[in-house]
Specification:
The protein is of the alpha/beta class. It has three domains: 2-20 and 33-105, Alpha-Beta Plaits (2-Layer Sandwich), CATH 3.30.70.80; 111-147, no CATH class; 150-242, no CATH class. The chain has helices at 2-19, 53-60, 85-93, 140-146; strands at 34-43, 63-67, 74-78, 98-105, 157-159, 199-200, 236-238. A hairpin with a 6-residue loop joins strand 2 and strand 3 (74-78). Helix 1 runs antiparallel to helix 3.
Length: 242
């Protein structure tokens, strides 16, 4: 019975599509961006093992634009201008040959942070703010679209002090797995007591107390601003501070 209903629905939709009675719109995906004449169709079997597939393509007037090697049986199809994308999708979805069919959604990799003060960091994204030269920056946003780093990468920061309790830093500060905090002992046997987050080279002991970070000490790390490489953990090494 279900198969009969699908067949009847397919014939009905095909008739509407051929006659042009179905409007070409995007109401089914309100708010989502997609290509108006492209769809993605994944077959349950290969096209060669789907004998009814050429007929389905002819019925919908869809044309093959691309096959994806990394996703077997997935095809990008184009449909003629003026055809209803929704109706074509319903025809493919109602076919027993098709695993799924969906619009070709428009997506982009954008890793720009939502920090409220990001616009002030001209060294990361120079749009000409404050009279600067637009584009004279690190191209940080383009780099972040490729990768924001890995928490498995440890980057040592040499500075006069780091506020490792700061909201922008606390989740990425390195923790010494061999050290027990606050027991006044050198648990990992490296010669330094309580070096949980880093090493105080001036005091020749564990880390110094958390320092109040100012913009002059660590530019770009004040509240609401973004570090250049957000993901790696960082053990600070204090220099010039007792």
């Amino acid at each position: 019975m279900n198969r009969l209903i699908k067949i009847v629905l397919s014939i009905f939709l095909a008739g509407l599509l051929v006659c042009g009675w179905l409007p070409s719109g995007q109401s089914a995906w309100a708010g989502a961006e997609f290509h108006p004449r492209r769809i993605l169709v994944k077959l349950k079997a290969s096209p060669a093992d789907s004998p009814g597939y050429p007929g389905l393509l002819a019925l919908t007037q869809a044309a093959l634009a691309r096959r994806f090697r990394i996703v077997p049986n997935l095809e990008l199809l184009t449909i003629p201008a003026g055809k209803s994308l929704e109706a074509v999708l319903e025809l493919f979805r109602s076919s027993p040959l098709v695993l799924y069919a969906e619009p070709d959604y428009l997506v982009s990799a954008i890793a720009t942070p939502d920090d409220p003060l990001f616009g002030q960091l001209w060294g990361l994204a120079n749009t000409g703010q404050n009279g600067g030269l637009a584009g004279a920056d690190l191209n940080a946003r383009a780099a972040w679209d490729i990768s924001t780093g890995s928490p498995n990468v440890v980057v040592m920061v040499i500075d006069t002090g780091v506020d490792y309790t700061h909201p922008d830093l606390v989740d990425n500060i390195w923790n010494n797995p061999g050290e027990i905090p606050g027991n006044d002992l050198d648990d990992d046997g490296n010669g330094y007591v309580d070096d949980l987050h880093g090493f105080n080279a001036v005091g020749l002991g564990g880390e110094s107390p958390p320092l109040r970070v100012t913009r002059s000490m660590t530019p770009g790390m004040t509240m609401g601003m973004e570090p250049t490489c957000p993901a790696p953990s960082a053990p600070p090494v204090t220099t010039g501070w007792a």
